[in-house]
Amino acid sequence: MKRLYQVALATLAYSLADSSLLAAADNAAKPSIIVIVADDLGYGDLGFQGGKDVPTPHIDSIAQSGVRFTDGYVTGVVCSPTRAGLLTGRYQQRFGHEFNPGGVDQTTGTQVGLPLTESTVADALKKAGYKTALVGKWHLGSDEKFRPQQRGFDEFYGFLGGAHPYVPNDKNTAGGGPIYRGNEEVESPAHLTEAFGKEAAAFVEREKGHPFYLQLTFNAVHNPLQPDAEHLARFEKISDPKRRAYAGLLSGLDDAVGQVLKAVRESGQEENTLIFFISDNGGPQQGNGSNNAPLSGDKATVLEGGIRVPFVLQWKGKIPAGSVYKQPVISLDIPATAVALAGGSLGSADRPVDGVNLIPFVTGKNNAAPHESLFWRAGPQHAIRRGNYKLRQQADGGPKLFDVVADVAEQKDLSAAHPELVEELSAAYSAWDQELAKPLWQGRQGGRKPNAAQRAARTERRATANAADAGKPKQTTSVN
Ligand SMILES: [Ca+2]
Fold first, then answer.
1. How many angstroms is it from 449 CA to the middle of ligand 1?
2. Which tens digit of pLDDT belongs to each residue from 68-113?
3. pTM given for the model
4. Which domains does the chain have, with CATH numbers?
5. Lower Cβ count inside 10 Å, N or C end of the chain?
6. How far is CA 427 from CA 39, 128, 421, 422, in A?
7. Of 79, 222, 231, 382, which one is the catalytic site residue?
8. Any catalytic annotation for residue 210?
9. Is residue 191 among the annotated active site residues?
């Protein structure tokens, strides 16, 4: 009996050791994933996108080491909706997250954020054994139940709103709020961009040997234009003060990205780490001095300048360096790729994921287009891309049809020449539109006039900003 007991114990010990070894081996096979998101970046401002006046060697190196998506899109025309899609892998209009949340819904008086009915890529990866962190801007709800650590992230360092001053004690922007580590308010760092880079690099080094998901959402190059002195000094030759300040911020962003890339490289994790880089929407060119060339349009529009963004991915040894991928892809594909590689699951039968795993496409295993169509809706404006064609409806007219491969600047409306395409794309858009929810709240771009309380709050913010701005270079703020 004693002997039998010993054998049973030994077998149990062996199988426990065996399963933990298997788990370790399984984890070692899973790649880590870093998703870097810039804020309000111009389409044409990075070196690999044709930018000339602001060197961006570190971000360029992601394109050189991996794949550049020429037709990479985001799902939102402004910050928060894109982030809702990026976290869920689902078109955010499916669950009513069509506009920026303003903190409190003026109709119901309740706090709003990424609906709790949705699960996130961080939830899925955490379940799959990943360590998860959000560094930077959140903008998916400030109330405690909406915060990053309630939405699948083990760690959070950053701010909860849609915009924030880069330097401490600056009252130029309303709604910046505290800097948090987890749920604790902490001291503001000397400059946010540098601090986010440093925090992300430390996480990468600390989690070596363990699969991780790091979402690094810089607020650069969003207003207010507050570069640090060192980066601003690099651009004395740029005469336009707004463009000069923007260049300083972008250069600081590039250096912070470089710090993270260095941490990945020097900790020996390059071959086991995917690194994505995108912007959350196009540049508001008048607002922050960005440049969307050769695209037309700005942030907050469904023109290409609002929704087509720099979109690159490196995975050393898996994706050939210097690849260019020309089929349309969308930010929803990032969480879908992450979850596929991690062996997790996202969405459900009644909450389907719209993104696809990009790896078979960029490695040439699948030569089909990843998506038959891509869709956008932001209040009265909407668009569909199918093949080379895009049908666009603006509040002030349309629909207009463009061949966005031959005519990337959307100059030649083909709707009269191709009524059959207008009909086909309109029908496909309508079918998608039928699947969507009503917006849970309205945004400033939603066309609803602000009520008296909102108007009063805005007047007060402007007065505070003007008082704080006295004697300083002119700052311009824009929708987040
Ligand atoms: Ca943005």
1. 22
2. 999 999 999 999 999 999 999 999 999 999 999 976 766 677 789 9
3. 0.88
4. 31-372+445-469 (3.40.720.10)
5. N
6. 33, 39, 10, 8
7. 79
8. no
9. no
